[in-house]
Design a protein that fits this description.
With about 375 residues, the chain is α/β, with parallel strands linked by helices. It has helices spanning about 15-20, 75-80, 85-95, 120-125, 140-145, 155-170, 185-200, 240-245, 295-300, 330-335, 345-350, 355-365, 370-375, and strands at about 25-30, 35-40, 60, 65-70, 100-105, 110-120, 135, 150-155, 175-180, 210-215, 220-225, 230-235, 265, 270, 285-290, 305-310.
């Protein structure tokens, strides 16, 4: 028995990282999710790859040693990052200490996300901002797991896989930073969305993508896609990709049973500081949670480049749910994504009303004074 039989695979590549025979590849399956492929002729059934099925290895309570709000002191950095630039400033701090920083970058040519290594600040720049796609991270995970002086920024399952591999080999792990993760959508959705943009909005060639443009504010972020001549810009209320993604209609099945929502294998967890505490802030604020002493020491050193404040429990966002319910229309959504049906037609069949309806309702609510909205809540 090997990792191809696991019931809750998340595509993290941990099985390939653990395999002592290097016979596991991670490739996209017919549903648009990364999955392991094993060379059965060389498999020894040692079972090491099966460790990725459970949340084994060291796990820490998220923010067990402290939670901080953070915003970069540099306004340009805050504007370019998805939240407050806290994770980017942490990466800069690590880079300045000689760490090779591994992080996710969107590639316009392949229209995919891949982890790469940054050794200069110019290399960090493409890592800024969220990328709501599953990253090809195996090579970077291997490099990070073999270098205790490196740093790896990734999803909770990727980070847990690295710590698990390091503990199995009794080696010191790199600095590990996991990013609060909603889940990863099928690449079938993203490709259909790009096809929609080329067909309906006349975009051509390789497309640059910003998944979290804040020109209209941190809370009303937009997806911006450009070919250098034309630019598509829609808020997450209006955009078809986000309307499927944020409703969990085509997430990786493993994301629905993610064991890393309240616990983490990382030294630091980073994400948006959503919730009442900063509901009137439109520049963006990062939540940084210290899970280990190593992580806490790093966050304390961020005070020179960030407005960093310790936060009390009453100010924290609501705790994460133990699991994400599987929507009733997920199976139908995935079935339609596997066909040639255009995305806008799938949207009509699955969600009914046009995006403009939700957008109009949100815009009307925005006209209500903030004090009145708070009272209504």
């Amino acid at each position: 028995m090997n990792c191809t039989s696991v019931s809750h695979c998340s595509g993290c590549s941990g099985c390939a990282l653990l395999c002592p025979s290097d016979i596991v590849k991670v490739e996209e399956n017919a549903d648009g999710f990364l999955r392991p492929i094993v060379d059965e002729t060389r498999c020894t059934d040692c079972g090491r790859c099966l460790a990725c099925e459970s949340a084994s290895g060291s796990l820490y309570k998220t923010g067990g040693l402290g939670v901080f709000s953070a915003a970069s002191n540099d306004e340009g950095t805050t504007a370019a990052c998805s939240s407050g630039g806290g994770a980017y400033e942490l990466a800069r701090l690590l880079l300045g200490r000689g760490c090779v920083v591994h992080g996710a970058v969107y590639n316009p040519e392949s229209a995919c996300v891949k982890h790469v290594a940054a050794r200069t600040e110019d290399g960090l720049t493409p890592m800024r901002g969220s990328k709501y796609l599953q990253s090809r991270a195996l090579d970077a995970m291997r490099e990070g797991a073999s270098d205790p002086d490196a740093a790896f920024f990734g999803t909770p399952c990727q980070v847990a896989a690295i710590r698990r591999a390091c503990e199995a080999s009794v080696t010191k792990p790199p600095v590990l930073v996991d990013l609060i993760c909603h889940g990863v959508p099928s690449m079938l959705l993203w490709r259909k969305h790009l096809s929609y943009l080329r067909r309906k909005h006349k975009l051509r060639g390789d497309l640059t993508v910003n998944f979290r443009d804040k020109a209209k504010g941190w809370h009303d972020f937009s997806l911006v896609v450009s070919d250098g001549r034309r630019t598509y810009r829609k808020t997450h209320w209006d955009d078809l990709f986000f309307r499927f993604f944020l409703r969990d209609l085509c997430l990786d099945p493993g994301c629905h049973a993610c064991p890393y929502r309240a616990e983490s294998a990382a030294d630091v967890r980073a994400g948006d500081f959503w919730g009442k505490r900063f509901r009137d802030n439109e520049r963006g604020v990062t939540l940084l949670a210290a899970n280990t002493e190593r992580g806490l020491a790093l966050l304390r050193d961020l005070s020179e480049t960030c407005a960093l404040s310790p936060e009390d429990p009453p100010h924290l966002p609501p705790p994460p749910k133990d699991g994400l319910p599987v929507p009733g229309k997920r199976a139908m959504t995935m079935e339609l994504l596997r066909t040639d049906t255009p995305l806008e037609q799938i949207h009509h069949r699955i969600l009914g009303h046009a995006p403009a309806f939700t957008s109009l309702k949100h815009k009307v609510l925005k006209l209500v004074p903030k004090a009145v909205r708070r009272a209504l809540k």
